[in-house]
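USER: Note each token:
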Amino acid sequence: MTRRQFALAASVSLPLAASVRARAAAGEVLRVLAWPGYADADIVKTFEQRMGCRVEVTMVDSDVNLWQKISLHQAQDFDVFAVNTAELQRYIRQNWVQPIATATLPNLSRQLPRFQNRAAIPGLVHGGKTYAIPYTYAEMGLLYDRGQIKQPPTSITALWDTGLQGKVIAYSAGTHNFALAALSLGLPSPFRLAADQWPQAVDKLIALRRNVGAFYTQPEESLALFKQHHAALLFANFGRQQEVLFRAAGLDVGYTIPKEGALAWLDCWAITRGATNPVLAAAWINYLLEPEPGQVLEQRQGLANTTSASPDYRGDDRLVWLEPVESEERRNLLWSRIVSGDRARKVLAP
């Protein structure tokens, strides 16, 4: 960003801050529920000084934990919270979040085009109203050993390449793996399988099980298994964070987004129905779209922000934002049967 661009952004944000201060009582408290790295102490301090308020930050470490904290008193305990697009939908159904007055967020104009088009991101807009603002994201690409695979894999079907049998490491999760199978089969939606599509997806995942050397659940585990199996290819559920982890361990790896698209989570900021000061909550969201918070997110957390172009992403990269699936229970049940080695007929048995 040039000095002129920075000055323009600041000139937009400072009048908003003055306006919010004028409407906020002295000692106003903003209650923030966030993931680690989303509300660091220095970022919070700048906001407090600018707005003349105090910020109380509560951290969560899982979607289950987030739901528990918001639902405990039906969204009355917090003003603003970070949530991914798939999880957001159940908060909307419970009427625990409120529409955001986007006209009060001038920094939305700083966002990259794919995030400015909020209606194109599943789950953000309902009835013409925006319920959350994109903040950070990560996709699930393919990580490969440059020594064994000379050209970057272009398709997700590389996970099924029998020439790599036993040298593929994949993530163990029914929800995501059925989505992967749907993408590889070219089905209309990776998140909503029709009745006649389940057998195809099951057959595809049985073939994946036979091709994979090991399945992991945590990033460090994926690194250990990759080394142990002298693997050539990995489905990177944790995205570029795994690329950084592998390179730090001395591995010569590459990373690519397949042509079919990469499943991707998108964390957004939402304002609760019980917010005591929605204007201050909106100012928090607007502030986090400024250059400094975005840079902190990248440099400290290794996560992309929604305002800065990155050489890691091309404009034509297809990111498939996660959505609620037709049945997490069924996907996980069938996946457990697949991993156990069951045949297709037994997997699909009632």
